[in-house]
Amino acid sequence: MFGIPLKWIAIAGAVIAAGILIGTILSGFEKLGASKEREAVINQNKESGNAGENARLNMHECLSRGLRFDYATGKCQS
């Protein structure tokens, strides 16, 4: 076939197949890392939201008791 030995065609095919396999594996690792990072960001957002809600509830509770809420310290003062 065009003067190229069959052995060299088989070697080239094997190299191309190995490259495709390695590329597929690396792409899978990249997607796995991205999903783990996305999950970490989602968890941070949930924690932040929960902390904000807890602070709001603490402030509301303070005001409902007739006390003064100090925004600078985030604490209830009499």
Any overview of this molecule?
The chain has 78 residues and is mainly alpha-helical. The protein has one domain (6-77). Helices cover 76% and strands 8% of the residues. It has one helix at residues 6-64; strands at residues 68-70, 75-77. The chain has a two-stranded antiparallel sheet. The longest helix has 59 residues, at 6-64. It is rod-shaped. The protein starts with 5 loop residues before the first helix and ends with a strand. The mean pLDDT is 85.
Task: Please outline the helices and strands.
Blueprint: H1 6-64, E1 68-70, E2 75-77
Antiparallel strand pairs: 1-2
In short:
The chain is mainly α. Helix content is 76%, strand content 8%. It is rod-shaped, with a radius of gyration of 30 Å.
Task: Quickly list its features.
78 residues, 1 helix, 2 strands, 8% strand
| Overall pLDDT level | 85
The quaternary state of the protein chains shown equals single chain
Category from helices, strands and their pairing: mainly alpha
Tally of structural domains? 1
Anisotropy-based shape: rod-shaped
Distance between the termini: 94 Å
Element order: H for helix, E for strand = HEE
Question: How many β-strand stretches?
Answer: 2
Task: Give the spatial strand order of the biggest sheet.
Answer: 1-2
Q: Total helix count?
A: 1
Q: What level of helicity do the residues show?
A: over 70%
Low-confidence runs: none
Strand content: 5-15%
Described by strand count, sense and barrel closure, the largest sheet is: 2 strands, antiparallel
